[in-house]
Design a protein that fits this description.
- Two copies of one chain form a homodimer.
- Chain A is α+β, with helices and mostly antiparallel strands.
- Chain A has two domains: 68 residues, Winged helix-like DNA-binding domain superfamily/Winged helix DNA-binding domain (Arc Repressor Mutant, subunit A); 52 residues, 2-Layer Sandwich (Dna Ligase, domain 1).
- The first copy, chain A, has five helices and six strands.
- In chain A, strands 1-3-2 form a three-stranded antiparallel sheet.
- In chain A, a hairpin with a 5-residue loop joins strand 4 and strand 5.
- In chain A, helix 1 packs across helix 2 and helix 1 crosses helix 3.
- Chain A is globular and about 50 Å long.
- At the A-B interface, helix 4 and strand 6 of A face helix 4 and strand 6 of B.
- Chain A binds a DNA duplex (30 and 30 nucleotides) through helix 1 and helix 3.
Chain lengths: 132, 132
DNA sequence: TAATTTTTGTTATAATATAACACTATGTAA
DNA sequence: TTACATAGTGTTATATTATAACAAAAATTA
């Protein structure tokens, strides 16, 4: 199972930083944080990020160029992601909605495409930001 | 109606390039193309792109940092976009699926978020690339 | 062991996007 | 018409995001 794969030193360091953050982090902010742990160059971060995305430990929030840990350790959702993003405070949460996933997973168009992956981002205002 | 808004010179030039392309274009490739028409700097392109996205004439493909014209001139879909992307040939198409849009439009989570927008990108292989 | 693959570290650079400022055009309202 | 506000322009500089290329080290495999 790829999700149980052994991580290398750099991959662990980067994952650790991301998992400790409740919110998505940007590559260069990760770089800043990991400099004290011996990672010096952007490429070292990007390589770790690529791998972590590939094995489903983290996801990329495409519209924000940032990375968030996948809390759902059991199911390897590397291929089907749904996020909610508050456009005011930039709070991001991963959504796990069975009905929605089923709907998307089984989506077929009439163009003969074979889908293997999707990414959905909802934008709006979170509870807190609606009030203020 | 904002979709019938009068466009400025730069906005028209940029939109024209994007509409003539069947595939999404990147900002700097647009810049290259419009240099002969008097647009010299990235910012001029990005400003036009921002506006065109805002009024729904074009959409940004977030995972590709590229821009595609909205063919659907009647409905101003600035807020609800669905794309299919071939990971081999990078062919991108906008999907208009009533059932899917309805489903997404009415999606509610239990977090109290108020959604105003979404973007969905499906990835896979197109008909042609499956064969080859 | 040797061969192969993966990861690392490093420097340099490419690609994507915005800040700041002065100026111009356009719209609006007295 | 004038004044004011708003939106767009042109420009230079710079910030941010991401990858190419190469040599060396580590891990894997046969």
């Amino acid at each position: 199972m790829q999700n149980q794969q052994v991580l290398t030193k750099n991959q662990k360091i980067v994952l650790d930083i991301i998992e400790k953050s409740s919110q998505p982090l940007k590559a260069y902010s990760i770089l800043f944080d990991v400099k004290k742990r011996g990672i010096n160059a952007p490429l070292q971060v990007y390589r770790a990020l690529d791998k972590l995305v590939e094995i489903g430990k983290i996801h990329k929030i495409e519209s924000r160029n940032s990375f968030i840990a996948c809390k759902n350790s059991k199911c390897q959702i590397t291929k089907a992601t749904v996020f909610s993003i508050c456009e005011n405070c930039e709070d991001v949460k991963e959504i796990h909605d069975h009905k929605l996933s089923e709907h998307l997973k089984h989506y077929k168009d009439n163009k003969g495409m074979k889908y293997s992956k999707y990414n959905l981002e909802f934008f709006g205002l979170c509870k807190r930001c609606i009030k203020n």
